[in-house]
# Entry
Amino acid sequence: MELDEVFQKCLICQNPFCKKGCPINTDIPKIIDLCRKGEYVTAYKILMENNPLASITSRVCPHEFNCYGNCILNRKGTPIPFYKLEQDLTAKYRYEYSYKDKTGRVAIIGSGPAGLFSAIYLANYGLDVTIFEKNSYLGGILTDGIPSSRLPYEFVEEIINTLVKLNVNIIKNTKVDEGKLLELTKTFDYAILACGLSKSRTLDFKESDRIIDAISFLKDYNLARKLGYKEKYKINGKAIVLGLGNVACDAANALRHLDVNTTICYRRSQEEAPCTPMELNECINNGVTINYLLKPDSITENSRGLKVKFEKTILGEPDERGRHTPVGTNEFITLECDYLITALGQLPLENEFINVNTNSNYVVTDDNNLTNIPNLYAVGDITLGASTVVNAISSAKVACNDILSKITKE
# Structure
């Protein structure tokens, strides 16, 4: 494996901003330094022991906001694209997991990024892990949310194969409700709630078969192509996507793959968009039209399609997250389309787990992600709100390390 010339320029900082910018604290300078010395296997081992989903995160992380964006060389020169080195290492080498005597039983509810990470991380330390998954497939958003153009399914399959190698028990088609959750906390030593968010934000408009939330569309699109499921939505013609986060970008790119004339409408400016510059450029390169400062006002439907009335906006005062609030101007335009795809964010289900402390239906935890129920942890989006894959993994890592510290003390 030849190390690209760009990595020779890494300063191996004593106070590395790249490492601080990584939500899971990957020791980037050490890994790069080992690769410089030709010690690729050791570098790979350190990478995987810290993050067994490195093949995933190196492809879907918002690098511009994390390691790449925090590299000191951004100030002068070209930052180090560590994620490319991660991709090379995880493509060439395979981690050798060894059998260990079981030291405790852990139930994991959900098999999205946080659930998969928890299962591999804990099983590799010798815990007896069981995953409970409501769907007939594993992976959560990695399987049904992110198109193969951004994350080829082979990398998810590889993670699933790792579960098998580690003798992780997998129970699919099992919805864990309030009663089942309390039962698991009594029959297992520890339980981790990693079920993600199940509800999409919707517009307060009349329902229509031509108005589809982006999560449902992507699930339909991805499962048809990855697992051979029958497609429910037959979208063609023109589509408008509302929103400009990563889900909106994934939906827009999927629509372009279907040769749908696609326009994104976003109520704020480009600078306020939650998506990364890389995701935005991919949309533009795929022929997606992007309109800024437009807020949906009303929708009418006829036999030919939809007419979406938008109010033009200007940017007002910053909100609690620092993004400028869109303010209506009382000036309107109307755009026509065959389908409207809404990517307005996700929410937890209301009162899903009554005995678990929540705030606005998000599970409340302590600093170790432990809930008010003894030995029940909650990780990922169910506590964070809609976030990134790597943030969900970071949340899971905190809980896993707390479990391991308790087992060590025992």
Notes: The longest strand covers residues 305-318. Residues 200-345 form a domain with the FAD/NAD(P)-binding domain fold (CATH 3.50.50.60).
